[in-house]
Amino acid sequence: MKLILVLLAFTTTMLVKAQTTNDVWINEFHYDGLTNYGESDQNEFVELVMKTSIVNNSTELAKYSLVLYTVGSLDNVLLTPGRGLPYNTASIIYSVAETIYPLSAFTSCPSGTVGFTMLSKPMSILQDIPAAMAIIYDNTIVVQLLSYEKSFNIAPAPAGGAAAGQTTTLIVNTSGQPAMETALTPVNHSIALIGSGSTYSQFTWEDNILRTATPCAVNAGQTLAGAALPLNLLSFTALKQGNSAKLTWVTSEEVNVSRYEIERSTDGTSYKTIGTVRAAGGNGEHTYTYTDGAPNTGKNIYRLKMIDIDGKFNHSPLRPLNFAKENAFVLSPNPAQNKITLQFDAVINNGTIRISNQQGQVVKQSKMNGSDKTDINISELAAGVYVVEVISPTFRQLEKLVIRR
Predict the structure, then answer these.
(1) What value does the mean pLDDT take over residues 332-337?
(2) In this structure, are 123 and 270 located in the same domain?
(3) Taking the CB of the first residue and of the last residue of the chain, which one, N or C, has fewer CB atoms within 10 A?
(4) What is the C-alpha to C-alpha distance for residues 189 and 220, in angstroms, rounded to an integer?
(5) Dihedral sign, CA of 334, 335, 341, 347?
(6) What's the predicted TM-score (pTM) here?
(7) Which range of residues forms the domain containing residue 306?
(8) Are 263 and 395 part of one and the same domain?
(9) Half-sphere exposure (Cβ direction) of 113: Cα atoms closer than 13 Å
(10) Is the Cβ–Cβ distance between 354 and 304 less than 8 Å?
(11) CA triple 137-138-142, angle to 5 deg
């Protein structure tokens, strides 16, 4: 009898651990945008990807929910550690219904890929200040806990709910910066995963200001792949070597793997094959290298297309490199406190620098003429998120700036 109980306990434990981002993950969302001052944001939503087998199992689907957490507006202004509370406990104006969203209440849409379904729901409650979204299973298991704009701790039990005491994972873009939207973001924009794969870890977040939202559809620049190939990609790196890009990847357990195609993109949407490396095969570790001797000027995004002998394939995670383009600038430090520096790749003649707040109001403006570098004093600006915009007769560039006090 004791052996049976032990086996049952072990089985139950294994079932709980099986709920991961291999099954469901947050795939796209929109929370802030360009509006008239005082108006609510438009077209806010959250989209998830879930295995169709779970969506079609009403009993299992009913166990999943999306829970919204916030640091609270006062915490954000004072930049103190966030309270990390669900919306309904962070403020009396929110109800439980505006905090916990059963996934069964989301709209289900075909993904176009066998095995996956898109789940989408309008969510006008999403906050402009740092906040988090958690996928919760059976009211106890945290499948995913992501935050935007900054990472923070969820409040201890019982106030913090299922994620009590945990630290959020900050969403970062392909440049490694916090992915975020501002009051200057178009209303049809989104923060979305790009790349190719069959699990969350194989994709990369993008918040390009030109990105168009695709609620209830696979994201532009995203491919949901089928079953994983029989190999382990242990690592994949991209490093600049002068004017070349050196790609290195390490694999193991290559079974029936045919080759690796190296793909490159400038926008994360359209990719071009620039080279092919044959697979060594076998169960041991294998190290491969490929050098791109002619990268594009500006942004280069690399990925591996891993192809088996039957033609099936998966893509690796993305690896971005930037080879400076004329007139591009680097903003540092970011986040900043009292001063920022704009370092350009060429001398700027007749350029205007504007810093705008989240309401779209220009709070600081200066001119550039005949220089490739400028320092700007921001000590008088309040803590928050801003947009730094440079306009010249030949180019326009925007960068997000976070000011902390």
Answers:
(1) 89
(2) no
(3) N
(4) 12
(5) positive
(6) 0.58
(7) 232-323
(8) no
(9) 19
(10) no
(11) 35
